[in-house]
Write a structure and sequence with these properties.
This protein has 232 residues and is of the alpha/beta class. 45% of the residues lie in helices and 12% in strands.
Length: 232
């Protein structure tokens, strides 16, 4: 052996860290894509994509309203003549009723996203429905519902379906992810877009930076491709 040759030493700590990062990345991908890849098969009564004969897509925004971010979204949508659906958190809607009114005046639809942004898993069906009703008392709208995080309470599906269209998605922008590669994300969501697609953005502080990078270019893409952007 050449004693002058370099010896590569593998650090158990660094190797373990890489393995953990790989596992976290894999599980994050599975969780983020579970509801469309698997959920549409096992939960067919939920709306994943609309069946359309013409080039129509449905832009949706979750977690607002926010006085600055939501108004910026309204302006961006106006530039291309787009209408969208906003799934609002009840406590935010109660705090900013004027923004909610602006959405309605501009022809956008309002959906229920629970009052406290609740995860449906690990909570009783009764408590989950009560929180949804609390949101409804604020927005006075009982037509569209989207479960936060996509984690709907399974026991609530049947009773909710009597009053709401439960809307999921087939294109998830992941604009809420810290450190999101927005160039790759833009390519991914454009590639995933189809006639009838339901696309999820977030008009929230957490998603704000990514939203402002992704949304304008995506709207221009939709307009160039001849998609009509409707509210649900």
């Amino acid at each position: 052996m050449d004693l002058n040759s370099k010896v590569i030493v593998f650090s158990p700590t660094s190797l373990l860290k890489k393995q953990i990062q790989t596992l976290v990345g894999f599980h994050s991908f599975v969780l983020l894509n579970f509801w469309y890849t698997i959920g549409k098969t096992f939960l067919p009564t939920l709306t994943w994509r609309r069946s359309e004969d013409t080039k129509v897509v449905y832009l949706t925004f979750d977690d607002g309203p926010h006085p600055d971010i939501t108004r910026w979204v309204i302006q961006e949508l106006d530039k291309v003549g787009a209408k969208a659906s906003f799934f609002v958190v009840g406590e935010n809607a109660q705090t900013y009723p004027d923004v909610l009114s602006e959405l309605e005046k501009n022809g956008h639809s309002i959906g229920n996203h629970t009052y406290h942004h609740l995860k449906g898993w690990g909570i009783s069906t009764a408590a989950y429905i009560q929180d949804i009703e609390q949101c409804n008392d604020v927005i006075h709208e009982k037509r569209l519902f989207r479960p936060p995080f996509g984690r709907i309470n399974f026991g609530a599906i049947k009773p909710l379906s009597k009053e709401f269209e439960i809307v999921m998605w087939d294109v998830l922008t992941k604009d809420y992810l810290k450190g999101l590669n927005t160039k790759k994300a833009q390519k991914r969501i454009q590639r995933a877009t189809k006639t009838g697609s339901i696309i999820v953005f977030h008009d929230s502080i957490k998603a704000n930076l990514n939203l402002k990078v992704l949304l304008p270019d995506y709207l221009q893409f939709l307009a160039k491709e001849g998609y009509e952007m409707r509210a649900l």
